[in-house]
Design a protein that fits this description.
The structure holds two protein chains of two kinds. Chain A folds into four domains: 3-140, Rossmann fold; 145-223, Beta-Lactamase; 228-312; 321-468, 2-Layer Sandwich (Heat Shock Protein 90). Chain A is built from twelve helices and 19 strands. Chain A has helices at residues 14-25, 42-51, 69-78, 93-101, 115-140, 160-166, 170-173, 225-273, 282-312, 325-339, 362-379, 436-446; strands spanning 3-10, 32-39, 56-60, 62-63, 66-67, 84-88, 106-109, 145-150, 155-158, 188-192, 200-211, 214-223, 321-323, 346-350, 358-360, 383-390, 394-401, 451-455, 461-468. Chain B has one domain: Response regulator (Rossmann fold, 3-Layer(aba) Sandwich). The chains are: A alpha/beta, B alpha/beta.
């Protein structure tokens, strides 16, 4: 390592100047090369300092134009970051110690001067200076703001991050009163300057320290805007969960409270309808019939609404098992055929000889198909046809009726909640809930399938849904439940 | 509706909702093949079960004095009532209803409001 150290020697005694030159140059064999320039007065030294940079100053405190520690002060004022080793006369060690207190790196007694001491002092001063620099860089470069505030609340030091957080220049912060609270016990939250809508906040922590011999505060300032945002989001999520819980509880309570009176009214109306409480006139029977139909609708609405709410909040237990779609479709069709027996509409089931196994929740798919068949039978003029076929990844089931079809502009809305079409009604006095298809869509999503509708021109409405093949369906844990809560 | 069995069946209805019990009794009696007794709370339900010895007890869950599950337990503990088939009817769909019913050896569950067909099937 070829290190060069340039020294400015300010010394009026030519004997010492010569001696120091000799001592320093004795070190020629060393890796360090010393270059000395000399001045014989404070003014001469100051002139050189303003013209040129040095690594270190060796300063005699007894110069023709300045005596004592004033000399050091003037050099430090000229070059604040320059390491200085003070040369003291005779036994003025106290002066040397005082000089260190005022910013000198070290002192050297002239009457004890020798090459070793001199080089040691220079090396020590440079190392000490480097250490200071390192520490300064460290503090200056901290990502958090750091300030020293004295007991009169005057800012004595502020690092770059502090200036940037407060959006101030150094002179706008250092030497001025610190306007925020400082507490050793707790973090103080403050608002930082920022554009409207983009306000930031910071947290100030403080500790008591001694600064240059006086009690003071060291304070760190950390931008916590992101953290605050995160906290806010967290609080919102917690709040939403709480609200969801309340909603579920409310729905559950409402359902119970509605079901009980509904069951009474239904039973009473049924008793009247079936003449169990005595015969009714034709007019009375009509009125009771109307009440009975609407009780039925109210019951369906309540059940559908609860179904949909549970499906949407993903609280429904889905139990997907490999099964034969032919058996499932046939069974549902048979049930629907029984329920609609006596109607003039024909339900024709046109299924292939075999279909690959699918992986779905049987009850849920039965509900979807049953709902589609109910709809189709209500709107059909004479025939509803159920078909099924296998494609590469799924089995597609279709329900086609020969009714009036669906207006094209309504096709996209069909699966939304409470959408009802102004199609001529098939069923007498029957009114749907407007929730059946929304429920079907939720169910298909939960089962990894799709559902959609289109029109076959002149052939009424066509609803299709797909069931994923057991061989292709992703392996899912049984009883997939996003909320880990069993449904009722 | 299922085909009527030949013999008369004895049914006990236990529900504090008298407005529901009334039409239920009318409905069952009208069919001519049920003998019906009623009680309006769980404790009275147990007394009536021990006395009347029904084939089926139709039991509501939320009741004063002794609730439906409590009554189920009492019926099972007593040798006189152990053999009675229990059908639970409730408006309260709690998440563990099915599990609870299974554990209590309940034969069927009716969710209010239920269809007449479902009631007859359960009986």
């Amino acid at each position: 390592m070829d290190q060069r150290v340039s020294i400015l020697l300010i010394e009026d005694d030519p004997d010492y100047t010569m001696l120091i030159n000799v001592y320093v140059n004795e070190a020629c064999g060393d890796a360090v090369k010393y270059l000395i320039e000399s001045a014989v007065s404070l003014q001469g030294g100051l002139d050189l300092l303003s013209r040129q940079e040095y690594d270190i100053v060796l300063l005699d405190l007894m110069l023709p134009d300045s005596r004592g520690l004033d000399t050091l002060d003037k050099i430090r004022a000229k070059a604040p970051s320059m390491p200085v080793v003070v040369l003291t006369n005779l036994d003025h060690d106290d002066l040397g110690v005082e000089a260190i207190g005022r910013g000198a790196q070290d002192f050297l007694s002239k009457n004890k001067l020798d090459a070793g001491r001199l080089r040691h002092a220079i090396g020590f001063a440079l190392a000490r200076d480097r250490l200071f620099l390192q520490m300064e860089h460290l503090i200056e470069g901290l990502p958090d703001g750091m300030l020293i505030v004295d007991r009169s609340r005057m800012v004595r030091y502020a690092n770059a991050a502090a200036l940037s957080l407060f959006e101030r220049k150094r002179e706008q912060l250092v030497g001025r009163l610190f306007e925020h609270a400082l507490s050793p016990d707790r973090a103080v939250e403050i608002k930082l300057p920022g554009a409207p809508g983009a306000e930031r906040s910071a947290e100030i922590r403080a500790a008591e320290i001694e600064w240059k011999g006086y009690p003071a505060w060291v304070a760190t300032v950390r931008d916590v805007s992101e953290l605050k945002k995160l906290e806010q989001v967290r609080a919102e999520v917690k709040e939403r969960r709480h609200t969801d819980g309340l909603k579920d509880q409310l729905l559950s309570t409402v359902a119970h409270e509605l079901r009980t009176p509904l069951s009474v009214v239904k039973a009473v109306i049924g008793t009247l309808r079936d003449h169990l409480a005595g015969p009714l006139t034709r007019e009375q029977a009509e009125l009771v019939g109307a009440a009975d139909r609407h009780i039925g609708r109210l019951t369906r609405l309540l059940n559908n609404f609860l179904d949909l709410t549970r499906l949407e909040s993903r609280r429904t237990r889905v139990s997907r098992q490999p099964l034969d779609p032919l058996a499932l479709v046939s069974e549902v069709c048979e049930g629907v055929r029984l329920a609609h027996r006596g109607r003039s509409v024909v339900l024709s089931v046109d299924l292939p000889r075999s279909l690959p196994s699918v992986r779905v929740d049987a009850d849920m798919i039965a509900q979807v198909l049953g709902n589609l068949l109910d709809n189709a039978l209500r709107y059909a003029r004479g025939r509803v046809t159920v078909r099924a076929k296998a494609t590469e990844d799924e089995v597609e089931v279709s329900v086609v009726d020969d009714g009036p079809g669906i207006p094209t502009e309504k096709l996209a809305l069909l699966f939304d909640k409470f959408v009802q079409l102004d199609r001529p009604k098939g069923g007498e006095g029957y009114k749907g809930t407007g929730l059946g298809l929304a429920i079907s869509r939720e169910i298909m999503t939960l089962n990894g399938g799709r559902i959609w509708a289109d029109n076959a021109p002149g052939r009424g409405a066509c609803f299709r849904f797909t069931l994923p093949l057991a061989s292709k369906a992703e392996a899912e844990p049984e009883e997939e439940l996003s909320h880990a809560r069993p449904s009722e | 509706m299922p085909a009527p069995p030949n013999e008369t069946r004895r049914i006990l209805i236990v529900d504090d909702e008298r407005d529901l019990v009334g039409p239920l009794v009318l409905r069952l009696r009208s069919l001519g093949r049920f003998e019906v007794a009623v009680a309006y709370d769980g404790a009275a339900g147990f007394e009536e079960a021990a006395r009347f010895r029904p084939d089926v007890a139709l039991i509501d869950l939320a009741m004063p004095k002794l609730d439906g599950w409590g009554l189920c337990g009492r019926l099972r503990e007593d040798p006189r009532t152990r053999g009675i088939k229990v059908v639970i009817m409730t408006a309260w769909l709690s998440p563990d209803l099915g599990r609870h019913a299974l554990a209590e050896g309940v034969a069927d569950l009716l969710v209010k409001p239920f269809e007449d067909e479902d009631l007859l099937k359960a009986l």
